[in-house]
Every structure is written in structure tokens, then in C-alpha cells.
Prior knowledge:
This protein is of the alpha+beta class. The protein folds into two domains: 8-53, no CATH class; 55-110, no CATH class. Helix content is 21%, strand content 19%. The chain has two helices and five strands. It has helices at residues 11-24, 101-109; strands spanning 28-29, 32-33, 75-80, 86-91, 96-100. The strands form two sheets. A three-stranded antiparallel beta sheet has the order 3-4-5. Strands 1-2 form a two-stranded antiparallel sheet. One of its GO terms (biological process) is mRNA 3'-end processing. Keywords: mRNA processing, Nucleus, WD repeat. One of its GO terms (molecular function) is RNA binding.
Amino acid sequence: MVQEHAAPSDKLFRLFSIAKEFSDEPEKENGESSLFKYNAESMGLDLEYDADVASTAPEPASYETVFLSTHKAPCRSATFNLDGSLSAIGSADCSIKIYDIEKIIAREVR
């Protein structure tokens, strides 16, 4: 079976090119390096870019729990799947944990 992959975004290349232009000319404006001036186009990522591409990963329910731990740093983001049975939580320690909400509730009831 041949899988088609979406072409990667050229946003990183464009940002790198802009930064390289400024690093070749290290002039300062108002005591501030022009390398660190941002505009709306250079801020953030386009998370909608691959929204229409179907995922090839197996369903989360088919994963086996291999390692269970807590986050080592503050949590910065969280989301639930459509039916609210799973939650993915990301933290400042660069880890993402996927929680089965039903298992958490069952553990609390005991």
C-alpha cells in the first residue's frame, strides 16, 4: 500500500532565511538587535496545516502502558478527545502524558 504524505511546510526555511539576513548584518537599532524583532508572520506555528491528513497511528486504546510517572514540571496544555474518555497533557518538562479518564475515576472511587 502506497501512502501519500503531505509536503512539509516551508515556514521554517523562510524564518531561517529572514534570521540569516539579519545575522549577516549585526547592526543595532535603538540598542536592540534587529534579529529579535518579530512580526505576526514569524510568531507561532500553523497547527491547521496538516489538519486534513489522516493519521496512520494506531488508536490510543491499543497502546500498552509501559511506563507510568508524573510530570516533573508544571503542565502547560491539556486536551480531551471528542468523547472525553482520553486526555493528553503536556508540561514544561517536554513530556506528553495520555490519561484514560475512566481508569482515573475508577482509581479515585476505590
